[in-house]
Structures are given as C-alpha cells and as structure tokens.
C-alpha cells in the first residue's frame, strides 16, 4: 500500500532524479504517497555540457537555467513544493561532516519509509559514488539514539534503493526491484523533456524505460507492463509475503 | 495478498523443505494459499546418517522411517494431502531428461505463482545443486509454447526463490527475501522435531530462525518480527511498489 | 584489419545470431571477412511462441517457417551461402559427445580467427549455457595435437566472444568489446524484421543497438558512433597496442 | 603454537571485540599469548541505544557505563591490564592522519604476530569500514623503513584477520578461519553479559557461537567442537603445512 | 604436524600433480606423511602436443612415454609405489557414475586427511573442471553412512585444496594457502625435468615457484622462504589457532 | 596505429611505472608515440627499504638517489625529457582537491589518448588505491565543460588501463590487455636494473614478463611472443573490430 508512505529522493545533480526515478515518483504521488526531493547540486560543472557549449554562459546563468528546468520537471511530476536545493559544488562533490549532519537532520525530519538515491558504484560519475556512501551512512546514523541532531527523534531503519547508473554492467549494478511505470510514463516523458542541457539523454532514458518494461514483463509474466524503472536493493526485502 | 496463491516447493531430500521453509509454508497455508510439496528423494543415502548409525537398517527400513517422519511434519504444517514422493536415488541424484519432462508436467499441472527450491550453489551438497538447475530449467521450459508436455497448457513465468543452504557464505548465498514466520514458528518447531534421523539439525535451524528474525528486524525496523526464514531471489522483484 | 579474417558464429537457435550479432556480421563481410554461421537448432520448441500461438502448427511447419525466416535474414547479411543447420532439438538441448566431436571438426575445417557464440551464463535460457560450454570446450580441444578429428589439422587458439544475453545484469554479463555497427545498422534492422515468430524482439534489439551506441560513444569519446553491438571477451586482448 | 604469540585486537567501539572475538581472546590467553586490546571509541553515539532509551543520560554518563562494562568484560577475559581507550567520537568516526600515525606507533610498540580487527565491509556500520581500512593501511606502513614513527623499529608483515560483521552475507563476509572456542565459551558468555547497553545482542552472539561450532564441526570432521568464532583472512595462509 | 598424515592427490592428466604440487608432495613425504597419487589419465590427447608433433606416434606409444616420464618423476618425489593410473580418455574426460563410485571407494580406502586436486575452474582446461567437480562430490559422498561402497567404512570430512591453474586470474583462482617448498625445491625441479612432452612448462613452473616464494615471503614476513606452491582452499581453515 | 598517439603514465612512486609498464612505454616510443610520465612521489617512505637499511640516510639523500635512479631508467626508455616529479609525500599519500585540480590540468595539457595508472585495488599498497581513484576521477572531470581548469580545453574520454599489482589474485586484478614487449624487453631489463633500492624486484618482474609472455602466447596462438606486460581495462574496448 503506497498511500501514506513517505519517500525521500536524494539526487546528486539537478536532473538525476528525473532520468532514473521520475516514473516511480509520479506513480507514488498518484497513489497517495508523500514525496520529497533533495537536489544536492545543480550539476553546473559536470552535467551541463550542452549549456556550456552554447557559449556566453556563467556559473550563475547555467545554475539559473538548470534550476528552472528541474522545477518545471518537478511540477510535472507533482513535487514542485517538495523539492529543495542544497547548491553544493559538483565534480567533485566534497561531502563534509556538516553535510552528513544536515542529511541526518533531513532524514529525521522527513522520516521516510523509503529512500531512493544513487547506487553504490557508478564507473562514470565519482559524485554519485560519494553521495551513495553519504546517504547510506546517514540512514544508519539517523537510527542511533546517541546522535542528537537538533531536537530530532531517532528513526527506525528505512528501506534504501539505488538508481540505475548510466552504464550498468560495468558499474556492478544488480537489478533488485522493477517498478511498473506504465501509468506514469507520459509524465516521465514530459519531465525529461524539460532538460535541454542534457538533450541527448532524453531518447536514452525513453528507450531504457521500454527495455526495462520488457525485462519486467518477461520475469513477472505480467503482460500489461509496458514501461518500467529499475532499482538496486541496498537490503533484502522483509515482509509477510514473497513478492 | 497470499490468499489464493499457489506455491510449489521442490525438495531434494525428504526433510529439506522443513528445515528451510516450514515456517513460510505454514504461514502461507494459514493465509489461504494452496501449497504443494514435491520430495524428489527420501535422502536415504546422503541424509540419514543418524539412522544408519543405529545399525540393523536396510534401504527399505530407512525409507519407511523417513517417509513417516516427513508425513508427520507435513501434517503439522497442513500439507499432508499435498505432498508427493518421486523416490529418486540420492547422492548423487541423476536427473535424467525424463525427470525434467516430469517436472515440466508438474509445473504445468500446479501452475504455481511461486516456486521455492534449492538455491544455485550449496558447497556441501551436490544434489542440491543439480535440483536447483533442474527446477530452474523446467520453470523456463514450462513457459514455452513449443513444448507439449501431455495435454498441458503453457504457463507464464512464475517467481523462483532459493532455500538458504547449510553454510551460506561459502555457498555464495545472498539473502533476497526475509519472511516473518513469527506466527507459524511453533508449527515449524513441531515439524522439525519429527526428524530423528537428523536430530542435530533441530537446534541448528531453531537458532537460525532466531538469528534471521534479528536480521529481518534490524533491516526492516519492524520490532515485532521474532523469527524469520530467508530466501534467495532468482529474479528481481517486479511490482507496483518498492517492498 | 578485418579483410581476410575468418569468423565463425555459433547460434543455439535460428535467430540468436541475428539479434545479437547481425551488425557485426554484416560489418565484417563488408570489410572483406569470411563469415560462417552454424545454427544448432531451429528453436521450434523454445523460441517460436508467436508461431505456436497462431494454432494449426506442427513441428515441421514451424521448422519450415523458422528456416525460411533465418535464410532470408542470412541473405540480407550476406551469409546465405555460409549458413548451416544442425537441426538439434532445443529446450533442453542435449549436447552429446558426438556433437562435441562434430564441432571440433567444424572448427578445424573453418579455422576461424574469431568465434562468436553465447556467453557463459544466460539466466533465462539454459540452452545458451550448454552451447557456450560446448563451443568453449571444443575451441580448446581443437588446439590439441592428440585429437585426430578425421584428417584435420590442429588449430592455434582462436579468439572467443560472447553474445549479450537478453537480461544482462542478472546474467553476470560484462561488456568486453563494443563494435561500432553504424555502417551496417540498416542491414541488421532488415534482417531482424524477417522474424515474425519473435516479433516483440525487433523493437527490443533496435533500442538496444541505440543504447549500446550511446555507451560506446561515451567511453570512447568517438562522436560518430550511432549504433553498437556489445560482446563479452572470453580471454584478455593480446596485441601490440592498447585498444 | 600460541604460547608467546602477540595478538593485537582493534575494536571500533567498546564492545565489538567481545561479541566477535572474546572466545578467541580468552583461548589465546589461556594458551600463553600476550593480548592487547585497543578500543577506538566507547560507541556512545552509535552503539548505546538501550542506554539512551532509559533517559536521563549525558554523553559522560553513557561513556562511564560503557567503560565500566567493557572493563568488566576485559577482566573476565583476562585482558584488564592490556586494554586501552582512545576515546574517539563514533558515528561517523573521523580517522585523521594523526590517528593513522598513532596506530603505526602502537603496532610498532606491540609488534603483534596477529592483528584482529573489523573486516573490509559491514553494510550496517560505516565506522567498521573506516577502522578496517585504517588498521590495514597502518599494518602496511608499519613495515616500511622510511616511516620513522618516533624511535620505533620497523616491523615485518603480521597476519590480519577480520571480525564477522552482524549480517554476514550482505556484507560480503567470507569465512576464512574458524577458531574452536569450546574451552573458552563460558568466559565469552560471561563477558557478553556485561553489556546491558546492547542486551539484545547477547542471545544473538550466543546462538552464533553454536552455529559456527556446527559449521566448524561439519567441515573439519572434528566432533569435539561445540562452539566457534569465525574470521575473514586478509591474506592467504603461509606455512609449512596445509591447515 | 605432518608426520602420519595421509594425503591423496588426484591429477586429471599424468603431469598435473608435478607442475602444481610436486614441492608439497616431496615436503610432505620428507616430513613423514603418506602420500597417494591417482592419475586419472595419461593426457595423451590433450597434453602431449610436443610428442605428437615429433610424428610417428600412436596412442599406445604416447601413453608409454607419458607413463615412463611420470613414474620417473614419482620416483624422484618418493611416491613411485603410491601412484596409480586409471587410464581414462582425456579431452573431454567423461566421468561416469562408475568413476564416481570408484573414487568414493578410493577415498574410503585411503582415508586421507587432505585431498589435493584441481580447483573449481580452469578457463583453459575443461577436464580440470570436471575432475574438480567429481572429487569434491565424492569427498562429500564418502562421508555419508547411507552409501555402502563395497565393505568400506564411512569417512569424516577431509580437507580439500585446489591446484593453481595455468592462468590464475581469468580462472578466478584465489590463493588460500602457500606452502614453503624451499626444502623440496630441487626435487620438484628434477621431477619437472622428466616431462619432455611439455618441455615449455618447465621454465614456466620454475619461475612460478620463485614468484610464489616472493608472495609468501611478503605476506608472512618470513625472509627464509625462497620457493612456494599456492593452493585454493575449498573450505575455511578450522583449528585452535589463527595460522 | 601507435604513431602519433599520446600516452600519459601516472606513477604513485618513482619506480612503479618501470616495473609495470617499462616495456609498453619503450614499445610505444619505438613506434612513434608521445609518452609523458608523472611520478607523484619518490616513494622515500614506503618503497625505499633497501636504501634505509644501509643506514646513514636522510629523506633528502634517499630522494636524491631515487630521483637519479628513475631518471636513468627514463633515459633508457626514451622518456628522460618527458618525466615530471610532483614530490608528494608517500605512505599515506594525501591527495587533496588541489592535487585533483592539478591532475585535471595536466590531462587537459597532455590530451592523452591513453592513460596508464594503478589499477583499482592493490591489497599491499594503499597509495596505489588512492592514486587510482584520483586519476580515474580526474579523467572524468577533464571531459566536463563546466570545469574550467585554467585556460584549458575540455577533453573527450580517453582510455584508461591499470598496472598489474604485486599480488594480483588477492587484489582482484583481472587481465584485460596483454602487450607484446618482446621488442622492448631488453630496455625494460636495463631500466629495472637502475633501481638498487628495490633490488629484490628485478628478478621478480623479469620472471613476470616471461610468465605473461607465456600467457599471451597461449591465449593468442601467436608463437612469437616471448615477453609481455599485462594491464586491466577500466572500460570495455570500443572499435571497428574484435581484437
């Protein structure tokens, strides 16, 4: 049952959460979940090549464009009022103890049932690796009674899922969970089209949703799945049923 | 939703299904599932050491004892009328093409939503490895329209889960799914106590249920789980939700 | 230098070589290589679901359709006169010592510089696994002077590459070599369209060629690659240069 | 021959060395070894949940309780005079170059034949990972003549073993060495009972010793082993005999 | 303590045991162990290239040369009276149920403390893989009371170690145990020089002994090791001490 | 085609590039490539044991000897004018953001087609691990338009290869590419002989070149290869041909 669940999505750069989980986000919202997005950076150094190539840009102008794009995408997905920007420098992201503390605080504030962030290893993106390590560590710290982040209440262990990296096999990505996004696919498509700085990725992640849909259909025997997103499981599934 | 689900459990030897999945079986039955057990052998050669050591035994007498024990266990779990014995020779089990065909037929007859059997590798039990390979191959063959096993109707891909082997880490076992068996733990305990041929395993799997309960509680944050069973996932989870 | 090279492609079922290596085959022929295809089976049991579903089919009629389709594809790729059918039963393929001997003989006859076949593990296709094992073993046996297959001359170790399986990550597939198939992509597309028995795979492998093109472009820095095929390397690369 | 051997145990938090190696420590002392314990932190932030939950605690009061508990345990094991506390902050432990230097100095001072510390990866405890990395690096540095830590004499490579983490399979733990602790099990039990802050772990590690005893008995064929502890080997075994 | 230990070495082809374990065998004999060698084949098809290239050979003449060479080597190592030849056909070795039964019988007859045979995977030698699987399975079966091989007495689990394959890294070989063969190195050298059919391997395994000596020296800190042999551990070490 | 290619070699310590890639460097120069070496440190703390043991040394005197030795080696290889020393402290190397920036700048200045540096994991050398991570991250950053290192022009993704570590199997090293260094072997030998501080490594890497030559010959079927060097591939090969 998704209704009432709390989902926290931590994205290293402004668009990561869209390419890799927009369908799941829109589906969760549609089903009554609360979704919160944290964008750690705008990706202006490492993930705005198409903008810089146009020329005449400054860090500030690129940042403004990236922010506008991602807000537009967030609006389409229904999370415009639940997205925040920490505005860290990217490439390479320097995740200080202060950032760790801030993330523990954020986790305790949101109290998510589920966190989605970058998977443990992305061979083409060092920032993703650092963010994965940070979010995982903070999810552990958040459960510890001895850590008194502000006036916050300790959490119980939440679930953690990892985004599919760009080149999965050489990043040791193992699919753990496929989410059927057939009902939210159109929203994902519209959200992706907001990102002119990474235009080449739109067809890429469109095709990927189709391929993942094929995979999900084949291993589930469910013929109705057309599009899917795929995540790594940080932990085994625990429940009353074999899913 | 478990009610109405069909579960097929394929056990290499007479007691494997009890040590490794009795809690899950009893829980599924309690919740309204149909459960069918196939015991491929009585394990008289490889898994009846305690009986042979008593002396004065023949293959037939050991087989009779093993059959009585496992039927008693099945009764406790609620599957006495849904267990069948293929009476193959164990250690080493020779799985001929005819056995493969018979298993395809059985899968098509039962049409399970879920199959539980041995995981891919058990460093201390070659039979388990052969059975795992056979059941997995037959689950694929069962989906193929070109295979006309008797008058049977082709299936869709069902889910596959692997039993926890005796020594997990050196058998490359990766926990994929924990099932909370707190509500069926007493039945598992009673079922295990039927096996006098493998008496030393009773405390072993009792402690294991407690440890797996601890693991499940820790990673789920659910304080009510006392006992659990653990399975490997042959395939990623597919669904509408991140479990 | 491709000109003059000999390439042997061993395909478990009639269409495997097309989905997974048609672009490379056509590219090699275009560049002056000799390419030989061995189709071990027509895949009538395991890979002709769409035909069987039409009804009114017999094993012979399905075989005839599959053969016609694959010959049409071979013609498009330029290998119509270099394809042979061993007509083995599929699902599960039983690879007897006689088949091993025949394959050694074939390798000694062709004397390939390169063999392409199925990679070591395909989680959804047991036949692929058996064929991979067989071709690899025969490539080793073919180099041994003590094996006198007919009147044949012993070979030197040839290169071995593995097809990309359908679901790569859960089959432990590791990309080793990307081949730029931009110049032969149209032929691959046309060849794929011959297979009405597996119609659903045409868009699948079309999208895959685009995604693999993206991967190849990203890791090579070569902006001209549009489409690619990906293979596993059975052995490390040996040469005078770091490719 | 254990008599005269020097063993250094480095524990991230105050109780880690007890849960995971108390039996081995007591056994080594019984057999005449010199054992030295370094507790890097008291674990007051991350591993004192049961104390904090009681309420009315301060960092100092928790620290005092934890210190008293671990000293009592050390007394039971026979290492009360060979335990030192570095009192670092835990969760997340910040291991500065100064800590590295101090550890090199400590290793050169103790000159251990064997170091036991945390294994390379613990999916539920980032501190364990950092300590493992630090101790391993310092063991390498300690062997280098160019590093003049105080007035110390360079060491030769000592052996390194890793503690079993809480959830082994998902932490990629591979058992390398089982130590029979049947003769020191009662001491381990008594030592564990000192830790009221982590009361839930006492039964956990009691059962684990029993299960590890079963594993050790099965793979060694030695029927006298009742309880065991399990460690990862950082390096292969080197010797005059196959152990 | 080696004196009185029983060591069984199972070699797929006539010379495998020499290249990979001659130093360990000679060392064990020197220290008072009983060593028994089983050569499953003479390797006339797959491992006698240099002989066949000379021309004028028949299967029988090659077999005679190989037998003479390996007996000469066995004499040098001190196992001339403890070597037996099962004379199976190699490349590919067909290990029937009868061979399995014969191996169980042999294990029960010898009652070894330690078995050395091929490791689980050799990417360049399918025979090695089949033999590894067979010996491991038979070692398990030998422990089962229900298997009455002739009039034999059931065994307890013995230790298993795997030979280093020719190309280790691509065969997934993990060094588990290094044996210092400095005291038996000259014998190994002399034994290797008996094999004119595989002359190119003599320098290869001479250098390997030197490199493995370097590795062993580096990780043990023991400066006296000059030459070593390396084995994989099938099971973790069990004992009273951390070796 | 090597002529005109640009090769950047990044070496953690003064001699690493010689032991592990001198043959490839000399071969590349012979064939018309531009080769640039960056030595991050002189290895005076961690890799000059033989010098320190002589006594009477200071950091400065050891540094002077190491520099003279490596320059002599560089001269033999033909890179005397293309080697630079960053003079960082080793054991443990502290790679600050400033070092990262300097490396990005260096990559953009050289614009290499290929970078060779340390592979991802060396179990006996933490410095190698840090350098590997740094060079890989900088190679990614260098491609990003948003990173304006000085007045530099963004690069396209270059190829990355990893040095063979000292003990390969326990460092998870997987051979990806073998380079035939038969034509430059004498130069490698001469270059290695310059390093009196690590005298014991000369025979080690001489033998290794012979063994790697054997490996390369066996898997390529090319009988002319006598000596080889082996590298890990950071990325799959991309090209128009299966190498």
Shape by Cα distribution of chain A: globular
User: Helix tally of chain A?
Assistant: 7
Neighbour order of strands in the largest sheet of chain A:
3-2-1-4-5-7-6
Helix content of chain A: 40-55%
* N-to-C CA distance of chain A: 13 Å
The arrangement of helices and strands of chain A along the chain is EHEHHEHEHEEHHEE
Oligomer: homohexamer
Structural class of chain A: alpha/beta
- Report the major sheet of chain A: 7 strands, mixed
CATH class of chain A: Alpha Beta
CATH superfamily of chain A: LmbE-like
Give the CATH architecture of chain A: 3-Layer(aba) Sandwich
Unreliable runs of chain A, pLDDT <50, ≥5 residues?
none
Q: Could you name the CATH topology of chain A?
A: Rossmann fold
Largest Cβ-defined interface = A-B, 41 and 41 residues
CA radius of gyration of chain A is 17 Å
Mean pLDDT of chain A: 96
Question: What would you note in describing this structure?
Answer:
6 copies of one chain form a homohexamer. Chain A is α/β, with parallel strands linked by helices. Chain A has one domain: Rossmann fold (3-Layer(aba) Sandwich), CATH 3.40.50. Helices cover 41% and strands 18% of the residues of chain A. A 7-stranded mixed beta sheet of chain A has the order 3-2-1-4-5-7-6, with helices on both faces. The longest helix of chain A has 21 residues, at 200-220. The first copy, chain A, is globular. The model of chain A has no long low-confidence stretch (mean pLDDT 96). β8 (237-239) of chain C pairs parallel with β6 of chain F. Chains A, B, C, D, E, F: GO terms for molecular function: 4-oxalmesaconate hydratase activity; hydrolase activity, acting on carbon-nitrogen (but not peptide) bonds, in linear amides. Chains A, B, C, D, E, F: Pfam families: PIG-L (PF02585).
């Amino acid at each position: 049952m998704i209704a009432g669940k709390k989902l926290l999505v931590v994205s290293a750069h402004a668009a990561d959460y869209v390419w890799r989980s927009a369908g799941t986000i829109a589906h969760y919202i549609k089903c009554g979940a609360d979704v919160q997005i944290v964008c750690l950076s705008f990706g202006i150094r490492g993930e705005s090549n198409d903008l810089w190539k146009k020329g005449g840009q400054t860090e500030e102008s690129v940042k403004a464009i990236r922010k506008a794009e991602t807000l537009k995408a967030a609006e389409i997905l229904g999370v415009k009022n639940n997205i925040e920007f920490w505005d860290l420098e990217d490439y390479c992201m320097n995740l200080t103890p202060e950032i760790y503390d801030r993330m523990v605080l954020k986790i305790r504030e949101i109290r998510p049932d589920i966190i989605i962030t970058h998977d443990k290893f992305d061979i083409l993106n060092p920032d993703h690796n650092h963010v994965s390590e940070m979010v995982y560590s903070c999810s552990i710290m958040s459960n510890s009674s001895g850590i008194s982040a502000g006036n916050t209440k300790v959490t119980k262990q939440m679930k953690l899922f990892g985004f599919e990296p760009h080149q999965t096999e050489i990043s040791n990505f193992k699919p753990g969970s496929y989410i059927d996004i057939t009902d939210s696919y159109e929203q994902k498509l519209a959200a992706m089209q907001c990102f002119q700085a990474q235009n080449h990725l739109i067809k890429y992640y469109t095709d990927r949703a189709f391929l993942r849909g094929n995979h999900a259909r084949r291993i589930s025997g469910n013929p109705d799945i057309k599009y899917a997103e795929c995540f790594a499981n940080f932990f085994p599934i625990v429940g009353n049923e074999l899913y």
